[in-house]
What does this fold into?
Amino acid sequence: MSATAALPAPRLRLRGITKRYPGVVANEAIDLEVGVGEIHALLGENGAGKSTLMKIVYGVTRPDAGSIEWDGRRVSIASPAEARRLGIGMVFQHFALFETLTVAENIALAMDEPPKPAALAARIREVSEKYGLPIDPDRLTHSMSVGERQRVEIVRCLLQSPRLLIMDEPTSVLTPQAVLTLFETLRRLAVEGMSILYISHKLDEIRALCDRATVLRGGRCCGTAIPREESNASLARLMIGGELKACQLVPRTPGEIELELTNLSVATRDPFGTPLDGLNLRVRSGEIVGIAGVSGNGQKELLAALSGETLSPHGGMVRIGGQPAGRLDPLQRRALGFGFVPEERLGRGAVPLMSLADNALLTGASAGMVRHGLIRRPVMNRFARETIAAFTVKCSSEQALAGSLSGGNLQKFIVGRETRLNPKLLVVAQPTWGVDIGAALLIRQALIDLRDRGVALLVISEELDELFMICDRIAVIAQGRLSPTMATGELSVERVGVLMAGGVSVAEAADVAA
Amino acid sequence: MSPPDSLRRRLWPFRLERRATPSAAMRLASPLIAATAMALTGLVVFLILGQDPLTAFRVFFLAPLGGSYEVGELLLKASPLMLCALGLAIGFKANVWNIGAEGQLIVGGIAGSAVALFGSDALGTLTLPLMLLAGALGGMAWAAIPAFLRTRFHTNEILVSLMLVYIAQQLLGYLVHGPWKDPAGYNFPQSRAFAEAAILPALVEGTRVTGAWPLALLLAVLAWLFTSRTHAGYRMQVAGQAPAAALYAGFSDKRNIWLALLVGGGMAGLAGISEVAGPIGLLQAVISPGYGFAAIIVAFVGRLHPFGIVLASLLMSLLYLGGETAQVELQLPSSITGLFQGSLLFYLLAADLFIGFRLRRIPRPVTP
Amino acid sequence: MNLDHLIPILVSTVIAATPLIYAALGELVTERAGVLNLGVEGMMLVGAVAAFAAGIATGSLILAFIAGMLAATALSLLFAFLSLSLQTNQVATGLALTLFGIGLSAFVGRSYAGMPIERVPKLDIAGLSDLPVLGPLLLNYDLPVYLSIALYFAVQHFLTRSHAGLRLRACGESPAVAHAIGAPVIAIRYKAVMFGGAMSGIAGAYLSTALTPMWVEGLSAGRGWIALALVVFATWKPLRVLLGAYLFGGVTVMQLYAQGFGVAVPSEFLSMLPYAATIIVLVLICRDPKTILLNQPASLGKSFHPDA
It folds into this structure.
């Protein structure tokens, strides 16, 4: 697409955008240009400042310094409403849809002066057909799959006839097949002259889709590239500033069964949750089993059933170390050697306004931190200090508040805490979500070390690459059901993708066929 | 930039910025700022009422500290406030919003009075300890209702505990108008006066302050030990700050709710019986000028910290006494106390903002 | 009990329910925007005393209602500033508002205690109000009673049919999402809180000029809290607020009539009825946590700041 050269002024130009948060510079002097009809990638690893920059363009956050030009004219974007008036649309990574509303209502919500419901429904149909994004305006959102919800988001943007479409990690919630369909739509939009700003950290996708790429590292702009002319390795070098290291998984024979799920079925309290339907799984000591799947397919419910936050109908449905544990509470399960790293760090894995030492006590009461109901600060402090040292957690001291740490450092602390409590079975959800590469490598290696020490590990992640990197076996969860596990070496990404689609809802099946 | 926005920036070129770590200094300073702001508001109110502000200020805030009797009164009124607030604070920290301390105080007073009225002849020196025990148990029983309904039926403890205040008031009214009315009391709605063995003696000659004050201090120390040193106290704080983390760690929600409400109810019940068996000396239709509600303010002004609550209860007690002296000496309505108490809490909440945030000048947009 | 007894009971029920309808519908709109204002009792009291004072001073009931509305709105604005602009804890701020309102109304109202005021007149619709049964039952109330029903229709229409109502609900479900799609969350919440304040003010004004045309300290006697409970009872639906208010009105009135008929229960126990009924009703509604989970605005009581 050479339209860039045809017009003197690019559609969007950022100059010297800077945004500081207390203790962090999220963006520093960033320059960026997107031409008319260009698909421009914003590439960077987690925490590089991509999301902040996009929030600035979309008016969600305001920059401390720098300027924004739109079609050659200087603008100040004070709110998302103003961004949309300019012609900027955004599809969010975590969808901005209300479960209890219909598709049409959700779309009307984002309009300043929505047309009459009938007219709006007609327009929704028209746009969705034109771009191959089939959706029913009258359907309630909570009954839709993730792929369908993304279509609603895109159609919502398109109805405003935007001239720049921002897509924030759009494929993180899609099956590999649905990704291909999405790319076709995006290419068609670009041909019609729409500019697309595509945020991702997935190199293959960017090379397949994008005309140009701006690479962010540590909040700074560290170069631009034509992705088609680069290799994954060269893009990764730009992104990380070094070579991508891979983890080594030496084959070993697993031992005793530490976790066994037998026909685990759990109803859900959350009206929009996914009930678990007859799950079977075995995890042995000395192996890492991964569970892949698009989020919202029962991962949350499975984790709660494993940790004891939800009880199972029968004790025997969940066995830990051979003991029936389905009716035990979280503390009793921990006594059986269970450890757990939850997905949400702040507010679940750690209490933000408490110190790291206090957070050690959250799950560490059994490690000598409590005697006769009284807490023993020296033991807590020592445990926290040792965890900080062993996992190179960057913080002022063990008295630093958990909320003041970066995502990666806090995750290292939580993984460290759970690891150092000597579990026989460790369940980890999204081990490296939103974590910088350095921390991610350290965490993955720590999990592999645990495996080699004979701990049984279950890792639930949306990052397929990660699961392929560290797991001995992989199972896929879809619509609350779990596939049998397969040895990682005998598995292809495509095969996992088909399983992730689950083949249950008709619409999702259409994605697979496309 | 839209015009209202630029106007806003010119008028108020600041913005709030979250601090990386909450400011410990502001945490201590904000009650002082709030008290100062309240005193300044007081001056303005006195001016509006046509009083010489300095005289009124002296009468309201300084006269109640004039002598040993006055200081005794200060401690006397501070005791029930402190007792109620200590219990409430433990609950508030755990996100359990018991706002019915007034009702628990009343039922505590009733339960303790039952011992005094029907047992003091037989019990002798055991009367007072048993009255205090009955008071605490009565408050606990009243607080057990919202605890049970919340843990069993998920009802909101704010509304239930509050409704129970009105019910407790009616119950007290029934007793002193009906079965417990003193037959020789000229039909006044009150019980017969307690026997001497059922009255808390004055601690110091010439004052009315009773053993409730040192008892409250002792309980403040215990409350402090509980929150800072015990695992149970830690678990309740986790539940208050991050409920999901408490679930993750396996801390029982129900246990926290029961503990918070029983402790709060027991302390309020103690406050109730120590009022009835102290300065009042009999059961009457009204036994508290709203101590249970004022204690909510005390708990917040005291930063939910036991030692802060000791100080805050003295300040609130001063406001009660100031209202009384202002009524006598300046003919000001005593309800001015409620006005001051309410505004104190407002100022505190506003000042608390700066614990987590600071004010920063908005940088001027860079001109091209 | 014959019709002659029943009609006055029903009429009194409607009148007793009217202040609850105003206060609860106002709070319902506030809560649907995601803001929990526990200050209803305080705003009602301030509205009541302001209306009473204005009524005495001007002799105009319209001005009295306007004064009550303005005073309570001003108080709600204070709440909005603290909880929305300064992000204070909504529970604590609401409690503060109630405590402040109790103190302020007692302070201002001291000189009005015991004064008489002209009661809000009943409508007399040319002959129709004299019809047997139908007349007293439907056509012989004061204007605010009819307006409270109109308010129900307006709120119902606003929340379910209007674009602004949709956006307001979005702010209550997820302010972050609402902000992201361009709704001015803070401004919407300010308006919702002020609407709640204005309605509490009307409720208070009705108390001091119609229901019991006088001022005494603590006149509202917990009606503000009952209104809050009504919103939960109604699972945040306007129609159920209306029905719930009549139910509670009925309980209040039955208690008065039972005393009048000489039922052999001490009056104090009858006076407990509305409060006990509130608790029982809360238990019935909250028993199944799914009822609340499905209906309660998902972000109720949680602070939101667009810059955070």
